[in-house]
Design goal:
The complex is a heterodimer of chains A (240) and B (224).
Chain A (H helix, E strand, L loop, with lengths): L8 E10 L2 E11 L4 E5 L6 H8 L7 E6 L14 E4 L11 H12 L4 H12 L13 H13 L5 E5 L7 H16 L3 E6 L2 H7 L2 E6 L2 E2 L3 E2 L5 H16 L1
Parallel strand pairs in A: 3-7, 3-8, 5-6, 6-7
Antiparallel strand pairs in A: 1-2, 1-4, 8-9, 8-10
Chain B lengths: L1 H17 L1 H21 L3 H32 L3 H6 L5 H30 L2 H5 L1 H26 L5 H12 L1 H15 L4 H33 L1
Helix pairs in contact in B: 1-5, 2-3, 2-5, 3-5, 3-7, 3-8, 3-9, 5-7, 5-10, 7-8, 7-9, 7-10, 9-10
């Protein structure tokens, strides 16, 4: 198993704030290839900020970040290794899903961008791929966001509450896609409020409370009730 | 070049479909010119003298509105963050947005010159070719700083107010130099006089473009 700075995601002592407010307080984590880490935490605990730092959208004020062994702030090519699905689809509403994906294919330097965009839309079952994004339902926009994140074949997938707004069938489909990505050697970090969602796809879970990440717990063979109790206990201890 | 073309194409194709920016900018510009023509009721000679100022006042305020809207579109569905995730350098992202904004401002200038010729005096229309260099070079400097500040203010609550307050004082050298060039062109001044204004204007444009490319990295993170 690849650990340390050469892991898919290696973060050591990440700090980040907005103005005087400190949102992340020394977060450290390591995710090797083929593993999925779920980060649980209440609203305002810093989950979204952590994912934005890991996606290199925000500079950490302190700490070290390596994605596939590279510093994504020093070497822009490291950004090819990361796909991010956030609350918003990060697509242009006036363009269709295919046009958005073709544009991003050009920015990622994909040699056959249109073919890859079609393949990703097929994989995710996006039928209305030629309609403007602003006219699509929340569920289809969420799938389009996943298509954007998978377009360039990243080694690391970051997902911010990916199950919110999805019906049970779509959530099952997403679980299948994430398991496939992980089985192909991809590393996943997802944030969620729900222990049940974490158990459905993740190998390990950690609680993020007031900007601090508690040690991760392996999830193999763990029952939902005991996992829920662990999470509530960890969150309560960290919040004190 | 493929990346730059894709970035510019994105804005242009959205505008071709929605006609949101150019229609609203052109309409506001036309209304402003109508008000100015009714307020002054200028003679042809006075209209020719006032042309550089009237053209730039109309373009500056109307283009500022358009720039604010253009950058607000980037924030819808956090689309701009999707671009920031890619391995494209921030300088190239800046140039892509600058290129599309420049096309919008140039089209706006064309509309304003035609409307001015119709409402004030056709004399300006007859010298339209001479107006192209000072107006176009002015548009470059105006758009370079407008793109930088538009990105900076796009995530703020008061973006529509904040952008003109920040932008107009900074682009004043561009506007003054462009007006000097327009004055010389309209008066049929010596070529040397026109060239001097244009050279200075080009130098300011280069400074603003380089500043924009350099500072965009810092501005873009705040917009993320």
């Amino acid at each position: 198993m690849v650990l340390g700075p050469a892991a898919s995601v290696y973060a050591d002592g990440l700090w980040r704030g907005y103005g005087r407010q400190r949102v992340l307080r020394g977060v450290s984590l390591t995710v090797p290839p083929g593993r999925c880490l779920a980060i649980l935490g209440p609203n305002g605990s810093g989950k979204s900020t952590l994912l934005r730092v890991l996606a290199a959208l925000l500079h950490p004020s302190r700490g070290q970040l390596r994605i596939c062994g590279q510093d994504p702030f020093a070497d822009l090519r490291a950004r090819r290794c990361v796909g991010l699905v956030a609350h918003e689809p990060m697509l242009y509403g006036g363009l269709s899903v295919m046009e958005n994906l073709r544009l991003l294919g050009a920015l990622y330097g994909l040699p056959h961008g249109a073919a890859r965009a079609s393949a990703v839309c097929d994989l995710l079952g996006i039928q209305r791929r030629f309609d403007p994004v602003r006219g699509l339902s929340r569920g289809v926009q969420q799938r389009a966001a996943l298509a954007r994140a998978l377009l360039h074949r990243p080694a690391v997938l970051l997902l911010d509450e990916p199950f919110s707004g999805l019906d049970p069938e779509a959530a099952d489909g997403l679980c299948g896609i994430l398991r496939g990505f992980r089985n192909d050697g991809g590393a996943i970090i997802l944030t969620t409020h729900s222990p049940a969602e974490a158990l459905s796809v993740a190998d390990a879970a950690a609680a993020l409370v007031v900007g601090q990440l508690a040690p991760a717990q392996a999830l193999a063979g763990v029952a939902l009730e005991s996992f829920r109790a662990w999470y509530l206990d960890t969150a309560a201890q960290a919040g004190r | 070049m493929r990346v730059l073309a894709a970035l510019i194409w994105k804005d242009l194709i959205i505008e071709v479909r929605t006609r949101e920016l150019l229609t609203s900018m052109s309409l506001v510009a036309f209304l402003a010119l109508v008000i100015l023509s009714l307020a002054f009721e200028p003679s042809p000679a006075m209209a020719v003298n006032a042309a550089p100022g009237v053209l730039w006042v109309t373009v500056a305020f109307t283009a500022t509105l358009g720039l604010a809207r253009s950058h607000a579109l980037e924030q819808e569905r956090q689309a701009f963050q999707g671009l920031l995730l890619t391995p494209v350098s921030r300088s190239l992202l800046f140039l892509g947005k600058f290129g599309a904004n420049l096309v919008f401002v140039l089209v706006l200038q064309l509309v304003v010159v035609v409307a001015f010729a119709a409402l004030f005096t056709p004399e300006v229309g007859r010298r339209a070719l001479w107006l192209v260099p000072p107006l176009a070079l002015g548009a470059v400097g105006f758009t370079a700083i407008g793109t930088l500040l538009g990105t900076m203010t796009a995530t703020t609550r008061l973006r529509e107010v904040l952008l003109p307050i920040l932008l107009l004082p900074v682009v004043l050298p561009v506007i003054i130099l462009s007006m000097a060039g327009l004055n010389a062109a309209i008066d049929g001044g010596a070529m040397g006089e026109i060239q001097r204004s244009l050279k200075l204007l080009a130098a300011v444009d280069i400074i603003y473009l380089v500043l924009g490319m350099w500072l965009f990295e810092y501005v873009a993170e705040d917009a993320a």
